[in-house]
Amino acid sequence: MTSRVIFPHKVLPYLLLVPQIAITLVFFYWPASQALRQSTLREDPFGLVTTFVGLGNFRQVLSDPDYIGSVQTTIIFSAATALIPMAIALVLAVMADKVIKGRGFYRTLMIWPYAVAPAIAGMLWLFLFNPTIGTFAYMLRRAGYDWDPLLNGNQAMLMIIMAAAWKQISYNFLFFVAGLQAIPKSLLEAAAVDGAREVKRFWTIVFPLLAPTSFFLLVVNTVYAFFDTFGIIHAVTSGGPGKATETLVYKVYNDGFVNLMLGSSAAQSVILMGIVIALTAIQFRYVERKVHYA
Amino acid sequence: MATVALKTVRKVYAGGMEAVKGIDLTVPDGALCVLVGPSGCGKSTLLRMIAGLEEISSGTIEIDGRVVNALEPAERDIAMVFQNYALYPHMSVYDNMAYGLRNRGTPKPEIERKVREAARMLELGSLLDRRPRQLSGGQRQRVAMGRAIVRDPKVFLFDEPLSNLDAKLRGQMRVEIRKLQRDLGVTSIYVTHDQLEAMTLADVLVVMNSGRIEQVGAPLDVYEEPATTFVASFIGAPPMNLLTPDHLSAVGAVLEGLLPADAVTVGIRPEDLGTVEAKSAEAGSAGLITFDVTIDVLEPVGAESYLYARVQDASVVVRLPGRAAVPETGKLKVAAPVDKLHFFDTHGKRVDPVPVAARRLG
Ligand SMILES: Nc1ncnc2c1ncn2[C@@H]1O[C@H](COP(=O)(O)OP(=O)(O)OP(=O)(O)O)[C@@H](O)[C@H]1O
Ligand SMILES: [Mg+2]
């Protein structure tokens, strides 16, 4: 039994909760409700007349080819940003599991990128691949490859995916290392005696047993790719060239704060809110009830 | 089926820990060999070297006449039952048993036949679709056995397979393992630290102590003629009483003419001690030694009673049949037949008793 602190006071607990509630109200519920309200309004270019249009903004957004393009961009970007770090982190974790000497040192190094802020990570990659001054860009051009992410949309996409994925590898790595350690060694020994070589052991024993970890990371990475990569995109491509790297989140910002189409932007953010809620629900449903074996 | 031969096998772990210190052992074809010894004596290490899960530092291991030192576990044609069963948690019971066969490319109908056959033998038929976590400890143990059986290997290896079961189930499974091993006739090596399990299962009993073999032999031979004081005190429960001749003389035992020249320790099994009346009938012409013990506690356990007592500063256990009619405190005169005494020298090695003809002559 855990002993609990009992407050004799009736009001004190509520008083203690007030700051948290106030912050949530001011910085979350109020803007959220504003966005909801805003999404049903349309403003004239001078901000003088505001008319109620119901679901008009939503209709407009969803029929906008640019928006559909942005959905596609987001899917490509998110899928790559979610899956690439998982694959790389898994390979690294499996290798780290075999390292005996300097294990702690190796692991510590692997975790460092996670401490780098997204915008900084973006800047690092931008410098490395900047067509005029970037080291890697120079090497690529020397190798005869026509590298110019400022003009080529696919290359720009590749760059932000690399920057976003690179940062997420550390986090994925940590979870895979923990996941690997949780697999009893005797299982692998039993499989070895049962005639499975190393590769076979990995695919038939290790990989299935890592499934809960992988699923958890997939959800976390997807949320990250959606909502935590704004800084990278903003620093590296600003959504360009053209609209090649304009994800949904970036489009909300661009339409609202740059193009000042408040109604449309608000409608987009409401759609995003729906996506967040769905993702969070999935996350809670599966992450809370982690699969336990044996 | 195969013989297993170990030749001066050593294991030095990284860090310099010498867990196995040169072991020579041959397990005959079809025999069940039990390695027994206290915790940390190197039993598991030795077994894992045979399985190929641990590198062999020096010496050779042969299975069926073939040196397997450099072979992967998969190539040694062995099956192993682990202490924690090591069942694959994400596979059904059926898949757990089929896994090894699939890895060897056995055709599907044959896998099906073998798994069903093993499931029938182990009464697992109705559990084939379950996951390991949906099984009781005893059932998991059976699945682990089944996984070993279906493979039809040259050698079975068991590492304390029953230690996670309760006492009753352990007894049941012990009998079952014995029966299965006899029926299948597969050479087996079985590790345990439970001397009762060791005694009842073994064809060949190997007593180990700190990385070395203390004694190899048939269980009853080892029991009746322990080669060292270590074996004497490890095999048998309660263990053999080990006393010095001085202790015995001080409480009235007459050892003249009985004590071999090098003997510094006298061993007496608890059941060879008893009241003078009981033992004089048993001893016949061999004669008795008698001495006084100071009673500490009497423990009746049903069919027999254990009398815990002291001889000066040494403790002594006496095993008395049924309800023992002895006082709860004070002194008791006990006796042991002369031909049931064991003698050990300063190194703890067994010394032959003085031949009957030479006794009492000085
Ligand atoms: N991987 C390892 N590295 C270093 N030393 C080890 C390693 N594994 C075992 N040892 C040591 O080797 C000795 C023998 O260990 P082993 O596991 O063979 O004992 P055991 O006889 O099986 O004991 P138990 O009955 O407790 O299972 C022990 O002293 C142990 O500390
Ligand atoms: Mg062990």
TrEMBL record, chain A:
It is found in: Cell inner membrane; Cell membrane. Keywords: Cell inner membrane, Cell membrane, Membrane, Transmembrane, Transmembrane helix, Transport. SUPFAM superfamilies: MetI-like. InterPro entries: MetI-like, MetI-like_sf, UgpAE/MalFG_permease. It is a multi-pass membrane protein. Pfam families: BPD_transp_1. GO terms for biological process: transmembrane transport. The chain crosses the membrane at residues 12-32, 75-96, 108-129, 156-181, 202-227, 257-282. GO terms for cellular component: plasma membrane. The keyword Nucleus does not apply. Part of the ABC transporter complex UgpBAEC involved in sn-glycerol-3-phosphate (G3P) import. Probably responsible for the translocation of the substrate across the membrane. Belongs to the binding-protein-dependent transport system permease family. The complex is composed of two ATP-binding proteins (UgpC), two transmembrane proteins (UgpA and UgpE) and a solute-binding protein (UgpB). NCBIfam families: PRK10561.1. This is sn-glycerol-3-phosphate transport system permease protein UgpA. The lineage of its organism: Bacteria, Pseudomonadati, Pseudomonadota, Alphaproteobacteria, Hyphomicrobiales.
TrEMBL record, chain B:
SUPFAM superfamilies: MOP-like, P-loop containing nucleoside triphosphate hydrolases. It is found in: Cell inner membrane. This is Carbohydrate ABC transporter ATP-binding protein (CUT1 family). The keyword Membrane applies. It is a peripheral membrane protein. CDD domains: ABC_MalK_N. Belongs to the ABC transporter superfamily. Pfam families: ABC_tran (PF00005). GO terms for cellular component: ATP-binding cassette (ABC) transporter complex, substrate-binding subunit-containing. One of its GO terms (biological process) is carbohydrate transport. Residues 4-235 form the ABC transporter domain. Keywords: ATP-binding, Cell inner membrane, Cell membrane, Membrane, Nucleotide-binding, Sugar transport, Translocase, Transport. It comes from Chelatococcus asaccharovorans. One of its GO terms (molecular function) is ABC-type transporter activity.
